[in-house]
């Protein structure tokens, strides 16, 4: 991950443009006229209230929302994934290594190639406990993370990814402890009063997710690198 001085500068840019970034989280972009915030909350509420193993609508929305459809994984991966999500949803703590071990036998593409989907596992754990951060391509981009090469053995890749996730978790707690994104978090909470159940870790996740989306869309070039 990047040095603290570099990431602190990025947090300063986010805080400088907190209104622009956070406001866009509420934009309704889904065909059902819902924002990402609303879809996420719908999924969380459904997960709490229902048995989701046989809930086709929940699974379809979940797979689309978390970008799982493009991986072309075998059907038994999704069966195992949603069974684990349903079985673990009431537990106070969920072990990411245990989830990865359970998914390993079915972590294959339709062509039979083994496919480690570490990001999907972090999303499962996060849906049960939103104090556990999500790892995905936007977090990789933001923190300039070097992932383990696909050529090394499966267990070695998992170990490297778990070290990465440990670093991300530690960094998020540093953000909270040292109030590095406090202006942005406060603005989020004022703007979206109905999202009071979101942990600070989840709010940080949302804000970085939206920031990277804007950067990838050319926003930094338009704003001159964050200078007002």
Structure, explained:
The chain is an all-alpha fold and 228 residues long. The protein has one domain (4-223). The protein has helices at 4-16, 18-23, 36-49, 56-65, 75-88, 96-103, 118-128, 137-143, 154-177, 182-191, 200-216, 219-223. Helix 3 runs antiparallel to helix 4 and helix 8 crosses helix 11 (200-216). The radius of gyration is 18 Å and the shape is globular. Residues 224-228 have low confidence and may be disordered.
What spatial form do the alpha-carbon principal axes imply? Answer: globular
C-alpha Rg (nearest Å): 18 Å
Work out the count of structural domains. 1
Proportion in β-strands: under 5%
Order of helices and strands: HHHHHHHHHHHH
Q: How many strand elements? A: 0
- Summing up helix and strand content along with how strands pair, one would put the structural category as mainly alpha
List the helices and strands and how they pair.
Blueprint: H1 4-16, H2 18-23, H3 36-49, H4 56-65, H5 75-88, H6 96-103, H7 118-128, H8 137-143, H9 154-177, H10 182-191, H11 200-216, H12 219-223
Quick take:
By secondary structure, the protein is mainly alpha-helical.
Attribute tags:
228 residues, mainly alpha, disordered C terminus, 61% helix
């Amino acid at each position: 991950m990047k040095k603290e001085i570099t990431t602190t500068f990025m947090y300063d840019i986010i805080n400088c443009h907190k209104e622009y970034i956070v406001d866009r989280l509420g934009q309704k972009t889904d065909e059902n006229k819902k924002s990402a915030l609303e879809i996420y909350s719908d999924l969380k509420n459904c997960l709490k209230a229902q048995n989701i193993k046989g809930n086709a609508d929940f699974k379809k929305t979940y797979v689309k929302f978390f970008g799982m459809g493009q991986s072309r994984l075998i059907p038994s991966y999704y069966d195992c994934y949603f069974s684990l999500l349903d079985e673990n949803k009431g537990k106070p703590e969920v072990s990411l290594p245990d989830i990865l071990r359970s998914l390993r036998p079915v972590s294959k593409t339709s062509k039979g190639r083994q496919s480690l989907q570490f990001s999907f596992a972090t999303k499962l754990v996060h849906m049960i406990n939103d104090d556990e951060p999500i790892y995905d391509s936007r977090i990789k981009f933001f923190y300039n993370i070097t992932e383990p090469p696909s050529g090394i053995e499966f267990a070695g890749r998992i170990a490297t990814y778990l070290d990465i996730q440990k670093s991300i978790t530690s960094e998020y707690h540093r953000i909270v402890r040292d109030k590095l994104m406090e202006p942005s978090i406060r603005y989020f909470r004022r703007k979206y009063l109905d999202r009071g159940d979101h942990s600070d870790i989840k709010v940080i996740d949302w804000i970085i997710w939206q920031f990277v989306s804007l950067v990838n869309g050319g926003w930094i070039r338009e704003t001159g690198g964050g200078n007002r």
